[in-house]
Amino acid sequence: MPFVNIRIVKQVIERDPEGIKEKVTQDVTRSLSEAAGIPAENVWVVFEEIEDVDWFAGGERVKELRQQS
Fold this sequence. Notes:
Layout: E1 3-9, H1 17-36, E2 44-50, E3 56-57, E4 60-61, H2 62-68
Parallel strand pairs: 1-2
Antiparallel strand pairs: 3-4
């Protein structure tokens, strides 16, 4: 039974958290089910929302990186 843990910056999905999670869950479940040849109901997906001030990339806070772009 595959268990997929998706960590995502909370602010990235803030415009529609439930809708985005639903879409990602459906896509991940379908892809893994097809690739591994297992029933979709055996794929578990969990989201962990991380604040942008608590996520770093290359030593910089994601919050600041997002503000730069």
